[in-house]
Amino acid sequence: MIIISGRSFCYLTTNNEVIQCLIHVFNHLKPDGIVIFDNFYAPKIFDDFQTDMVIETTYQSRKYKRISKTSPNLQSGWTWNWDAKYIIEENKETQEYHDSSILRAFTEDELQLFLSLCGFHILECKKEASAIWTVAQKGDSIKELIQKMDPIK
Q: Is the pTM of this model over 0.85?
């Protein structure tokens, strides 16, 4: 079994990156092996696109705040630019961290096609708010179309 957690799959922004990842997963799984991963769900993300988000929480004596700025770019699928500032406060001291990324959300039919082409079949797909969770099982082989693709350079 392979688990891709934390919406890590969303950092694969091109079709080629998604396919190459799934090929590697396929090659590492035993026959009938399982892959489980989560993604952002494109209809929920883009139907009501949020450009500014602030999330705050406290754990013990430490305060955490994330300020996110987003903008759609749609360059290679359901993608958007994400810029975040993380602020951590404890004992009157403040630390700041910055993160900029391009993220990709997926539709259910996109995931079905990617998985099918790469030799998987979906066992379960669950949508919850802006997330989509997928459980897929390794099939017999990767489709010929995908086998003929050039790998990521």
A: yes
